[in-house]
């Protein structure tokens, strides 16, 4: 059993000066801890000017990487003995451990010693968890065990993310690993039967994951199933066509539609086939796609239409409509539909020389406009992005300037 530490931080609003709207109660969990912020009528020193408070409320400007980000509760700029700035929520000081008053350190490595916390004349240990609460934008989380690009990432029904295959330092990979968002760690699971990259992975309605095609020297027609309850891979029916760079979509009837891609002779396919999980077989089907590659260039599906750079593609009519332009030109980026219905586009290649970029931007389907958001810490392309059940976006691996194949993982 995972131990759950529950910290109750009481935020007072009665003594907030110049604040007109009350933020709602706020709770969230990071790593193993759940933290709940509760409104209270008792006084809080962070807002008490007579308590010699030196805190500045965070600047929520999105263009300044060194500043605190917007948050659903007010956050403050705390400074440590080394004058390092951390953003953290206003918190009830009495629950914080005091720092060692000689070494100015905390007994836990999961805390930072803050001198001018406004809590007390003595320095207090602020848990990193409380610091992360205040950030939006990108945060590093643990590295994957294998550096990889051209891989897949799928959110399982448990909320855990399954990463499969790709290309790494040793070439094409058959390895797979699992990210647990509740503890922020990676664990290996069994290897696929085939190494593959430029493949697809789809979560079926029974919870299993169907992996299809891809490349590992040849373009593959094989497919295999991952069972999360046993952590094992089993081969399933072969596709009619070998396909790599293709696209797979789970239909509402539970079947999987595989479209486009390239075959072993380098031909671009416009054909499509359907996988029936109840019989483990494939049947060819008609496809209205004019170009099988259209769907794999990093597009996001919005109301069954594909957002790709500055155009929306409607597969039912085959019609492209222009929409607002992205701020940065990019390819092999990711596009994720967030819970607020905006689309987060991150990273990508900028030119044919393989220069990759860290910029990220948000597309608002209501206004058809793009807005810059904070940059990834690491520029990359051929990475993955998965929307987690807590609303955050997990970005994994890809090709990055410094290390080539990356094991670096970030959360938005
Ligand atoms: C979370 O709990 C697990 C299991 O108790 C432990 O192995 C892990 O180190 C903990 N993680 C953190 C960040 O405390
Ligand atoms: C916040 O939480 C407290 C304690 O659980 C509760 O009494 C209060 O009604 C909540 N306020 C809002 C706005 O949800
Ligand atoms: C501000 O803090 C001082 C010292 O801690 C306390 O005496 C005073 O009551 C506080 N004022 C408010 C409005 O909370
Ligand atoms: C917040 O930061 C931005 C960009 O760094 C700056 O232009 C703006 O003046 C700052 N706002 C405040 C209130 O400090
Ligand atoms: C701490 O950092 C801030 C902002 O970077 C700076 O304005 C201030 O002078 C620094 N204070 C000390 C004591 O170095
Ligand atoms: C430091 O802490 C110790 C134990 O908590 C206390 O006895 C001592 O008076 C403190 N020293 C100062 C300078 O605050
Ligand atoms: C904290 O980290 C340091 C160095 O990384 C290590 O020596 C020390 O044992 C750690 N302390 C705790 C309580 O984990
Ligand atoms: C991630 O890759 C770096 C080298 O790029 C390596 O130093 C580090 O140990 C790797 N992390 C894991 C968890 O394997
Ligand atoms: C699937 O295709 C591979 C060659 O790609 C072949 O070796 C294998 O026997 C086929 N499996 C079935 C069940 O047809």
Blueprint of the fold:
Elements: E1 5-12, E2 26-30, E3 33-40, E4 56-57, E5 75-79, E6 85-89, E7 111-114, E8 124-127, H1 128-133, E9 139-141, E10 152-155, E11 161-164, E12 167-168, E13 171-172, E14 176-180, E15 185-189, E16 200-203, E17 209-212, E18 223-227, E19 232-236, E20 247-250, E21 256-259, E22 272-276, E23 281-285, E24 300-302, E25 305-308, E26 311-314, E27 319-322, E28 334-337, E29 343-346, E30 360-364, E31 369-373, E32 384-387, E33 393-396, E34 399-400, E35 404-405, E36 409-411
Parallel strand pairs: 1-3
Antiparallel strand pairs: 2-3, 4-5, 5-6, 7-8, 9-36, 10-11, 11-14, 12-13, 14-15, 16-17, 17-18, 18-19, 20-21, 21-22, 22-23, 24-25, 25-26, 26-27, 28-29, 29-30, 30-31, 32-33, 33-36, 34-35
Bound molecules: 2-acetamido-2-deoxy-beta-D-glucopyranose (9 copies).
Give a short overview:
By secondary structure, the protein is mainly β. The protein has one helix at 128-133; strands at 5-12, 26-30, 33-40, 56-57, 75-79, 85-89, 111-114, 124-127, 139-141, 152-155, 161-164, 167-168, 171-172, 176-180, 185-189, 200-203, 209-212, 223-227, 232-236, 247-250, 256-259, 272-276, 281-285, 300-302, 305-308, 311-314, 319-322, 334-337, 343-346, 360-364, 369-373, 384-387, 393-396, 399-400, 404-405, 409-411.
Describe this structure in words.
Residues 1-18 form the signal peptide. Keywords: Kelch repeat, Repeat, Signal. The protein is mostly beta strands. The chain has one helix and 36 strands. It has one helix at 128-133, and strands at 5-12, 26-30, 33-40, 56-57, 75-79, 85-89, 111-114, 124-127, 139-141, 152-155, 161-164, 167-168, 171-172, 176-180, 185-189, 200-203, 209-212, 223-227, 232-236, 247-250, 256-259, 272-276, 281-285, 300-302, 305-308, 311-314, 319-322, 334-337, 343-346, 360-364, 369-373, 384-387, 393-396, 399-400, 404-405, 409-411. Strand 32 and strand 33 form a beta hairpin. One 2-acetamido-2-deoxy-beta-D-glucopyranose binds next to loops.
């Amino acid at each position: 059993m995972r131990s759950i530490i529950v910290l109750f931080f009481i935020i007072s609003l009665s003594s907030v000066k110049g604040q007109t709207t009350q933020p709602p109660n706020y709770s969230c969990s990071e790593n193993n801890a759940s933290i709940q912020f509760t409104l209270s009528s008792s006084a809080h020193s962070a807002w008490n000017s007579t308590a010699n408070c030196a805190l500045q409320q965070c600047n929520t400007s999105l263009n300044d990487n060194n500043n605190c980000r917007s948050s659903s509760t007010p956050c403050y700029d705390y400074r440590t003995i080394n004058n390092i700035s951390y953003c953290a929520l206003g918190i009830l000081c009495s629950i914080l451990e005091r720092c060692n008053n000689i070494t100015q350190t905390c007994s836990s490595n999961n805390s930072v010693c803050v001198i001018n916390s406004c809590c007390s004349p003595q320095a207090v240990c602020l848990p990193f968890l409380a610091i992360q609460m205040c950030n939006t934008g990108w945060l590093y989380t643990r590295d994957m065990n294998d550096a990889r690009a051209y891989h897949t990432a799928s959110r399982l029904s448990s909320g855990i993310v399954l990463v499969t295959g790709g290309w790494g330092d040793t070439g094409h990979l058959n390895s797979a690993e699992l990210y647990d968002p509740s503890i922020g760690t990676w664990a290996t699971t069994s290897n696929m039967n085939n190494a593959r990259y430029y493949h697809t992975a789809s979560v079926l309605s029974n919870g299993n994951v169907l992996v299809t095609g891809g490349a590992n020297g040849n373009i593959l027609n094989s497919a295999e199933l991952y069972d999360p309850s046993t952590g094992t891979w089993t081969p399933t029916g072969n596709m009619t066509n070998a396909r790599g760079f293709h696209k797979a979509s789970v239909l509402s009837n539970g079947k999987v539609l595989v479209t486009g891609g390239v075959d072993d002779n380098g031909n671009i396919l416009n054909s499509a086939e359907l996988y029936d999980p109840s019989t483990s077989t494939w049947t060819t089907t008609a496809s209205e796609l004019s170009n099988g590659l259209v769907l794999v260039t990093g597009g996001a599906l919005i109301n069954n239409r594909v957002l790709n750079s500055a155009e929306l593609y409607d597969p039912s009519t085959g019609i492209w409509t222009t929409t607002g332009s992205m701020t940065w030109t990019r390819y092999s980026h990711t596009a994720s539909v967030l819970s607020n219905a905006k689309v987060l586009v991150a990273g990508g290649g900028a030119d044919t020389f393989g220069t990759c970029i860290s910029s990220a931007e948000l597309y608002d389907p209501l206004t058809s406009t793009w807005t810059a958001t904070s940059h990834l810490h690491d520029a990359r392309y051929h990475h993955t992005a998965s929307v987690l059940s807590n609303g955050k976006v997990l970005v994994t691996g890809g090709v990055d300037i410094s290390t080539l194949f990356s094991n670096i993982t970030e959360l938005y």
